[in-house]
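Human: For the file, kindly provide a plain-text protein record giving the amino acid sequence and the backbone structure tokens, at your earliest convenience.
Assistant:
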Amino acid sequence: MSRSPHVARGVPLSPARRQSLVDSALGALREQIASGVWPVGSRIPIEGELAELLQVGRNTVREAIRVLSHAGILEVRQGNGTYVRALEGSDLMPRMLDKTSPQDHVELLTMLEIEAVRLAAIRRTASDLKRIKAGLDAREERHECKSVNVFLDHDVPFYTAIAEASHNSALSQLYTYFLGTAREFARSGAVENSDQGATQSLHHDLYDAIKSSDPIQAVRLAQALLTPDAGRRI
């Protein structure tokens, strides 16, 4: 008979300081982990409970968990909770990147995207094409949606599928990270949004170029989509 995973409740947490909510939340979570209150392998309290304990919003908790996940300290298991993976992690680079500007993130995302579509056109497999097409179809279903949040959620699978089709794990992971941060900037209005449906035909052409194994055309279309007049998704 299987046993339910142990959920480490821990001791009451100190409220996060208002001047730096994410950093304070990070400090509180790290303290629980480092002290052994939440041992390696245990499941930490759910997002709502953490927000209440820290007296911060769920977005702050979500961001702190994201940072610790990138550091390899926490592991988010979809539908099963968040678990302590290690007592320490190599999170210096993610923390440094988190302090850079939205424009820096968008510029690097642009460079990664150009290389991702080029490699995808060269290396894509039949299963890669299925995933890219599924992302394109989901994007088309939502291209007239007025909600930025809903649209972004349906836009991301198309681009992550292309990055995965590059078959370069380092590129794919970096691209996913910066796509996530750029999406958050878009949600907060830090990056100007444009007409989400205006570029749907270009996205179809990009898919066709990748399907046709034409890296030159794929790069041209990606560059066109990245110009302001093309209605960049972020």
Remarks:
- Residues 143 and 197 are 4 Å apart (CA to CA).
